[in-house]
Amino acid sequence: MTDFSQTQFLTSAVGPAGFPPADRPEIAFAGRSNVGKSSAINALANRKRLAFASKTPGRTQAINFFDLGPAARLVDLPGYGYAEVPQATRAEWDALVGGYLGNRPCLAVVVVLMDVRHPLKDHDLHLFEWLRPVGAKLLVLLTKADKLSRSAALSARTTVLAALRARAIHAEVMVFSAAKKLGVEETRGLLQDWLEQAAGNKRPPV
């Protein structure tokens, strides 16, 4: 079983030439800037400073790779949806992340993070459409769930599930809070199961 506590930073890449060999299953984390992606990665690894959030949204324009023990990797994609950056910078993001998502044969799972209070923004929907041909498993984490009551967070989950199904997007959806450790164990367990599937298949079955 994959031990998330073994997660160690491997390398940063600004293009495919810097990607490590595609020799093991990878879990990629994607989400809008400031959605809590770094906090989620740290919570899953049970570490405080493994992944770092940029103080300026949209500033981080590299893909960070982490070894997840000896048999898998975790991949932190730069945030999207930022408003105060030049169009050229957004184009660079599209080229970098699109190049990774569309051409990475070992990509097993994509974790899409959305603020539970503001899910399914245009950039999120654009990402889901981008992921249709990829063939990886999809997990949606509704982050910052501690900012809502339990009933409101669960209601948001129901709404997101219905919206994704209406678009024929097949994904697991979990309520998540890194601060309160809500959904952390469940997320680890699901990702471990999917990685075990990927160990016997180049991609887990959709």
What would you note in describing this structure?
The chain is of the alpha/beta class. It has a single domain (4-200), classed as Rossmann fold (3-Layer(aba) Sandwich). The protein is 34% helix and 21% strand. It has helices at 37-45, 87-103, 122-131, 150-166, 184-200, and strands spanning 7-13, 26-31, 63-68, 73-76, 107-115, 137-143, 172-175. The chain has a 7-stranded mixed sheet, sandwiched between helices. Helix 4 links the parallel strand 6 (137-143) and strand 7 (172-175). Mean pLDDT is 88; it is low at 55-59.
Secondary-structure map:
Elements: E1 7-13, E2 26-31, H1 37-45, E3 63-68, E4 73-76, H2 87-103, E5 107-115, H3 122-131, E6 137-143, H4 150-166, E7 172-175, H5 184-200
Parallel strand pairs: 2-4, 2-5, 5-6, 6-7
Antiparallel strand pairs: 1-3, 3-4
